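Service request form, structural biology core

Requester: graduate student, group of Dr. S.
Request type: structure prediction, single chain
Budget code: on file
Notes: please return the result as structure tokens.

Sequence provided:
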Amino acid sequence: MPEKPAQHWTESLFDSVYALYETAREYQAAYQSARLARDGVDFDRRKIHEGRIKVSGPDIWGTPGRIGRREPHANALAVLDRLYGSLLSEIEERYDQAALIYASGTAWAVRAVQRGEQPAHVTLVADRDVLVPPPLEIPGLDTWSDGPALDAAYNALVRCTEAAEYGEELGDQDYISDHAADELTRAHAVASGMADASYAYGLLAQRALNFVLLEPRRAREREIALARAEAQADRPAQ
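Core staff response, request fulfilled:
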């Protein structure tokens, strides 16, 4: 089987970013599905059947050696709420990280191209198997038509990040006043949108990568065209 031709750095770099996008999108879809699943067993949203069963002897619902009545439907919803809640919490954490890595990794790629570098892949640093997000800001795109939208998405993400840091600072205090508790609630509400804000910023950063890759791609096309012309000129006349 013939080997696949090596990719030009512009192609492999974009594929690297696209892999981060697909990863974040998978976790986003899973998070949305998990939320729907948990909402589906919410006691406040469901009509619980009042039918009961009689349980005698050792049982996961009753006390060993006693006879009692239990509501199987309510028990099922409680069990599912616990299971879905645990799943939702884990997926939410993974979505948060994947979206942030997508946004920051793409921003890293844009800045690298702006500096005239030719990275074949997004390069990330890991600390104890946890990826460390690079800086998020992308300067120098004032001439790009979507520059204002990119700046707005960046500012929205910064607000979420600052709210998360502020909430953590308040939560670490030994005593929280009523006023601080209200601020903590508001901070958590803003910080809860960080994954979606990261994902939105990543999408715009990915478009920015396409923009800064325009000239390197054109240069590549010129190289290919020149190589073809030279090969044609070297052919013997028929």
